[in-house]
Amino acid sequence: MTVTGDRLAVSGGLRAALVVVGMLMGAGALRAQDTSQVQMIHPEARPDSTRPVLPAAVLRDVLNAWNDSATTRIAGSFMLPSGARLVGSVATFYGSIRVAGELIGKATVINGDLVLESGGLVRGEVLVVGGRIMVRPGGRLEGGPHRSYPIQAQLLRTPAGTLVVRPPPRRLGELATAAASFPVGPLKTTLSIETGRTYNRVEGLPIVFGPTLVREGLPNLDERLDLRGIAWTAPDRTDRRADFGYSAQLQFRFGTARRLTLRGQVYRVISSTEEQPLSAMEAGWSAFLFQRDYRDYYQAEGVRGFASYLVGHGLTLSTSLRRESEKSVPAGDPISVFRNEAWRPNPLVDDGHYVSWRLGADFDTRNDPEAASSGWLVRGWWERSRSDDAAPLAFPSEVRDPIPPGRYAFSYVRLDARRYARFSPSLRTSVRLLAAGWVSGDPLPVQRRLSVGGPDLLPGHAFRVQNCAPAALADPARPALCDRLIALQ
Fold first, then answer.
1. Out of 120, 410, 439, 455, which residue is the most buried by the measure of CB atoms under 10 Å away?
2. Other beta carbons less than 10 A from residue 341's beta carbon
3. How far is 281 from 37, CA to CA, in rounded Å?
């Protein structure tokens, strides 16, 4: 049985969304409810470890070219008209170079394009970052080498006119972080203690601490080791949850452009079932302020291997293999600022050991990862999982067919595609397609299931207004029980 619903909803004047929901296994009618108490901050940011960055050697070349006192520096675009001749090094910052005359020397374009018009000539070394080289019919590009990289250089101009690397912006979740760095032989060691950048009814405020060891500067290799202990501040009075968590992660990045990444990890963490409707940080603020936790959780303990390759032009391919024990954990009783009621129970999951293999692809051409106004962001993956000792929960047949204890396997896919466009300084638009769910094998376990509703994925409607639970299933935890989901915003 397939149920679909169409709604145009507005949440707190912040988003208007057209949502088309396709779900298997039945659902109740949509019930509108105000959710304006949760304010949207921004979509969850791309993790720093997967965000495309300029190779370190290229960034050095850019800084050396601009900061050279013999370079003619231009902040903005530059046009060399027809009949004009310029000899020497030229660099632009956040601007393009258009050549209709003759440029003899080194040309460096930082976050712009090099355009050779008809009759234009550039003879010498060319380096373009954050843009491309375009040669019109009749234009000539001679000498060399000629290099271009589409990834923008994150740089700042100093009062003296030189360029320096822009420090990464501190996010709201990073404000409560203390760190100290010092060299130990060829390694840079950083000791840190910080929050887990979230707050929930299972962990409370997780405190994460430990060292990071980084080795950089080798021509073809970067090494990084992260060791973390995790203290959960919400007490567990049932002894079903471990006393503490941990994560040990070793990462290698290979090649002069650092395109290939290999990573191994052992861990015991609290994971969320659905990565929606809000990001982890937004869900944390909602829980801390209003006692509204929009996610569910389980304990994951295991080992994971990961590999990715940056193909170029914003495309990254990845694969991973993990084996982990997934275990139900209860809700605790952490404090909340404006409410002091009983927390929503944390749903049970299908406990067991799961072996999962994932293939994924990311395509990111956004002009700004934090506040995009143009470009694409597409993330998708396919995953195959199996278990030899799972203990499935019993559900009515309307939810899923009975699963005998022991071995079973299933496949799952997820696609999140977003398109950003800017039509004028005051008019922007963004479109998002989200599709996820079961594709083959046995029915999905509870911790892989889906729902729709809440302040983000279905603005203006109640949390999990569509969760595919039959009326006979009166569960105060309101678990997500849908097999499939399609949404368009």
1. 455
2. 7
3. 15
Closest CA to 150 of 82, 250, 53, 80: 53
Structural tokens at position 366: 């956004």
Q: The whole model's pTM is what? A: 0.68
CA proximity to 436, closest of 417, 420, 455, 463: 417
Nearest one of 58, 60, 63, 72 to 103, comparing CA atoms: 72
Assigned token pair, 110: 């930082």
Q: Find out whether 189 and 198 touch, Cβ atoms under 8 Å.
A: no
Q: How far apart are CA 129 and CA 138, in angstroms?
A: 24
Q: Which residues contact 219 (CB under 8 A, 6 or more apart)?
A: 256
Cα separation, 443 vs 408, in Å, equals 9
Nearest 5°: phi and psi at 488? Answer: -125, 125
Q: Which residue has the tokens 């430990």?
A: 210
Judged by phi (left if over 0) then psi (alpha if -120 to 50, else beta), residue 56 lies in alpha
Name the token pair of 350: 């299908």
- Using CA atoms, how far apart are residues 164 and 153, in angstroms rounded to an integer? 10
Q: What is the dihedral of CA 451, 47, 176, 170, to 10 degrees?
A: -120
Q: Which two tokens stand for residue 437?
A: 């769910």
pLDDT digit string, tens, across residues 339-393: 888 899 999 999 999 999 999 999 999 887 777 888 999 999 999 999 999 988 8
DSSP letter, residue 59: H
* Calpha distance 40→286 (Å, rounded): 10
Report the range of poorest mean pLDDT among 52-56, 258-262, 291-295, 324-328.
Answer: 52-56
List Cα–Cα distances, 128 to 56, 101, 342, in angstroms. Answer: 15, 19, 58
Of 399, 378, 380, nearest to 467 by C-alpha is 399
